[in-house]
Design brief:
4 domains; 36% strand; Pdz3 Domain; 509 residues; 31 strands; alpha+beta; globular; 6-stranded antiparallel barrel
Amino acid sequence: MKQAMKRMYGTVAAIALVSGLAGAGSYSLFTKSANGQNQNSDIELKEEVQDDGFLVKTSNPQMPVQPVDLTEAAEKACNAVVYIKVVMGGETRTIEYRDPFEDFFGDFFGRGQGGGTQRRQVQTPKQEAAGSGVIISTDGYIVTNNHVVEQANDITITLNDNREFSARIVGTDKTTDLALIKVDGKNLPTIAIANSDDLKVGEWVLAVGNPLGLNNTVTAGIVSAKARSIGANGVESFIQTDAAINQGNSGGALVNARGELVGINDMLVSPTGSNIGYGFAIPTTLMNKVVADIKQYGTVQRALLGIKGGDVLNYINEQKEKDNEVDLGTNEGVYVSEVEADGAGADIGLEKGDVITHIDGKKVTKMSELQEVMFNKRPGDKISLTFLHNKKSVTKTATLKNAQGNTKVVKQADMDVLGADVRPVTNQQKEQLNINFGLEVIKVNNGKIKDAGITKGFIIQKVNDENMQSVEDLQQAVKDASMSKEPVLIIRGVYPTGKKAYFVIDLSE
């Protein structure tokens, strides 16, 4: 479980006491009907005025109050939640090191130059980690957290009925900390997906996963808050819950009392690293967008407004601490601290100091709410934006853009766009050219490499200032550049003759 360690005010004892009370005495005013369905009870509430003048309401003591029944929800969720085991490391790498004794004796006896530099192959140690995932389709698509699988060399999925599958990564998104993986299976158990926007604070939820090595564990609590931002992910609109969450719950399900998926458990905020705090889940509104984009485009599409800012209340409090008077005309919304030139916000006249109050007619009270709405948009989408400019309300329609400043759908490029085959340089090439790493171009086909003028034999050493030591390094560099604001590869390297050169490849063309 990824942990967000924050300072928590108040004593741990006080926190534990509040949790204990909630666990022991939280009952829902529902009774069971003949068919087992929950229905509103007919408990009669009587009003009484105490001697101190306070009005209190008491229920008829003859009418028993039953706790909410979560057994059916737990059964539905457990079958669709899987145990994920990942294996990291175990690769064989060639490293260079300098032996000081070899240097000394080499110099002393006059044996060669730089005799202390040696190369050897080492195997990185294997590490295992575990997490949870949720099956969302009968053909084997599973949602989990990015941090559970991002470094995995091998992924094994275990179902509730102990069936095992090998899984592959379909796509990941670090910004939301979500990942989509796939197993080859048929008729797998799934879970119904609910709209997390319909959740209410105080509503019962279950956290289902595999914490601390305890498989198929279910804990219960309530929704403590919505649209929470804690500064851990790039895009956040967390569901906060007091249902117990620990390491191993990452990627598991947060479900409502009907057994429907409302979130993917992501992290724990606690002063100790274990469950003495609150759990945070990624809402299904964000999850659905990530899954849809990865399936359709291979990567998540981001529509940008082209602004920077934060909660109005935070801005007001910051100014008060500086003894500055501030009157924005509201205490709610998103304060605009910066507007990018040529962005969607600039196009409709947004300026620094404005306050965004509504998007598509929906009230926005803080940045996390704006992020959640924006995340579900794609480049080219139009939105209605209401904002306060000099305390006067203005509503305009903006056309959203991508990170590259246009309205096109951005697709993640891979090495195929280069049109070349490469391989790591040999030890002999390293010695001849006095280099420590690089990728030799061994074949040139039609593509960006050929268009740039790079020929067979050229050794690529750096791409966008990143060292190229493996084919995977180049693949990642192409992917990262294709999704960036400036989709350009700056390639630096050396020819077999020792001549150095650099080339610029534009991936947007």
